[in-house]
């Protein structure tokens, strides 16, 4: 009996090492069953303070920051990233609270393949109580895994489109992403950019199925056409079958954030971003 108990304890410990225990996004941050909001890059013509305001105006409840956005109209020379001062962080947290927005993710950010540099990014994420970090720094996977375990923060590997003239770029392929993360801590997985999968000639639902259990977050897009040069359109008006994507995420019991990264008409796209959130709020039946 004692020997069986030892085996059982070892098995439980091994299972625990593969489970995801990071703090979940609260239910009150969800719209239509998903924690959907804006990737601040959608508003990269504006400051991070304005991006928070615009996310609230669009009806989002969460935001994903990116490194390098202008900080404020009053201090446009300052940049918002993991080098932000305590005063800048406090001011951003105050704006988030004022607007009723929760910061949940940060990226796409390069994570250095050295612990000191990577630690700075994770400490920033922890200070903001983020759900996750988004990167493409595959070369830093060992450092990332160490800090994921230490900080209990998820990391999603993001995909950009296939690059015909750069065979070394493999992140567009969900099978490659799976090969990177499958034997790692379960808090490491994919930031599923569905628009870039379409631009790469892939079916987003098939890609999600390949990565089942490893979807950390998503940059959800609908596109006007299936081509490398396609541009964003409001959910439900393009070729991406957003209802099927959301249904697949729901089937997988996805608990991460969905970021609207609307990279079209970026000088004035609030109405389009709002339509995307309204589409999800309505149950994706439009």
The rounded distance between the terminal residues' Cα atoms is: 59 Å
What is the CATH architecture assignment of the domain at 82-87 and 103-281? Answer: Alpha-Beta Barrel
So what's the CATH class of the domain at 82-87 and 103-281? Alpha Beta
Structural class of the helix and strand makeup?
alpha/beta
> Which range does the strand content fall in?
15-25%
Largest sheet properties: 8 strands, parallel, barrel
CATH topology of the domain at 82-87 and 103-281: TIM Barrel
Strand order of the largest sheet: 1-2-5-6-7-8-9-12
Describe this structure in words.
The chain has helices spanning 2-18, 48-58, 86-99, 115-127, 141-151, 174-181, 194-199, 204-210, 242-251, 270-281; strands at residues 35-39, 62-65, 69-70, 79-80, 102-106, 132-135, 154-158, 188-193, 215-220, 222-223, 232-233, 257-260. The relative contact order is 0.14. Helices cover 38% and strands 16% of the residues. The longest helix is centred in the N-terminal third of the chain and has 17 residues, at 2-18. It has an eight-stranded parallel barrel, surrounded by four helices. The chain has a two-stranded antiparallel sheet with strand order 3-4. Strands 10-11 form a two-stranded antiparallel ribbon. It is an alpha/beta fold and 286 residues long. Helix 2 runs parallel beside helix 3 and helix 8 runs parallel beside helix 9 (242-251). Helix 2 (48-58) links the parallel strand 1 and strand 2 (62-65). The chain has a domain at 82-87 and 103-281: TIM Barrel, CATH 3.20.20.150. It has ten helices and twelve strands. It starts with a helix and ends in a 5-residue tail after the last helix.
